[in-house]
From TrEMBL:
It is found in: Cytoplasm. This is Ribosome biogenesis GTPase A. Pfam families: MMR_HSR1 (PF01926). The keyword Ion transport does not apply. GO terms for molecular function: GTP binding; GTPase activity. InterPro entries: G_CP_dom, GTP-bd, GTP-bd_ortho_bundle_sf, GTP-bd_ribosome_bgen, GTPase_MTG1, P-loop_NTPase. GO terms for biological process: translation. SUPFAM superfamilies: P-loop containing nucleoside triphosphate hydrolases (SSF52540). Keywords: Cytoplasm, GTP-binding, Nucleotide-binding. PANTHER family: MITOCHONDRIAL RIBOSOME-ASSOCIATED GTPASE 1. Residues 10-178 form the CP-type G domain.
Length: 280
């Protein structure tokens, strides 16, 4: 199964982002803490160039806390500041504000010396679909300034949002890249909801997910779905989960599609526990 998703509007959004960089002093790059490698658009580095950047591990409460720390150290070694954040609860918000203030302390001092008391830092929020950009902006603004949703593709165009007197943020549509060279990247994006479920075979995605979780966190599967063991093929495990959850259709067969949706929805909602799918 070769997963690819690159709607036409993403080409336009990528071009708009490149043009918008002339108007900003900072790039805030959001990654999904569960899949920092797979959720990093490789085009961002070339688009942003030498523009100052802060990397945020969003949905950090859904990822393994120890592995989050490893990713923070990984980016530190690349001379990039990296913070854990949860755009829904506001966790990490104060740390982000402090990091921005510290980064532009000298710039603000120079402006003050020229008699300019307050000039907001203009920052661009970048990331893949459904990573939480609009939710972060709404949390920082303290109001619903942008549209949000639990599915990719909600933000369609760029928009500026003022955050207090010291910061202005530009929200941009989530952008993927034209081709996933690594099949695993496509699956990781599918597992976490960055790609529309409607364009994929949800049953096959769930079977691949079971295969991965058997290696990473087998006990979470056994505990959540009351499985005695994880023996046999992944499709058989899917059927066992379906039976245990009462996903039965006419003739006594397991409703695999319903079961698949339950498994992926519960992983995305953190009901299987804090599970990271990638390590640095």
């Amino acid at each position: 199964m070769n997963i690819q998703w690159y709607p036409g509007h993403m080409t336009k959004a990528k071009r708009q982002m490149a043009e918008s960089l002339k108007q900003v002093e900072l790039v805030i790059e959001l990654l999904d803490a569960r899949i920092p490698k797979s959720s990093k658009n490789p085009d961002i580095d070339s688009i942003c160039g030498n523009k100052p950047r802060i990397v945020l591990l969003n949905k950090s409460d859904l990822a393994d806390s120890n592995i989050n720390k490893q990713w923070i150290n990984y980016y530190k070694n690349l001379n990039l500041q990296c913070l854990e954040i949860n755009s829904l609860t506001g966790s990490g918000q104060k740390e982000l504000t402090k990091a921005i203030n510290d980064m532009f302390q000298e710039r603000n001092a120079r402006l003050k010396a020229k008699g300019i008391i307050s000039k907001p830092v203009r920052a661009l929020i970048a990331g893949i679909p459904n990573v939480g950009k609009s939710s972060l902006i709404n949390r920082l603004a303290g109001k619903a300034s942008t549209k949000t949703g639990d599915r990719p593709g909600v933000t369609k165009g760029k928009q500026w949002i003022k955050i207090g007197s010291n910061l202005e943020l530009m929200d941009t549509p989530g952008i993927l890249w034209p081709k996933f060279e690594d099949e695993e990247v496509g699956f990781n994006l599918a597992f976490t909801g960055a790609i529309r479920d409607e364009i994929m075979d949800i049953i096959e995605i769930s079977i691949k997910f079971i295969e991965k979780i058997k290696l990473i966190s087998p006990d979470s599967l056994k505990s959540r779905y009351k499985l005695d063991d994880l023996e046999g093929e992944e499709a058989d495990i899917l059927d066992k989960i379906g039976k245990n959850r009462g996903c039965i259709i006419q003739g006594g067969q397991v409703d695999r599609e319903r079961t698949a949706n339950i498994i992926l929805d519960e992983y995305r909602g953190g009901k299987l526990g804090r599970i990271s799918l990638e390590m640095p």
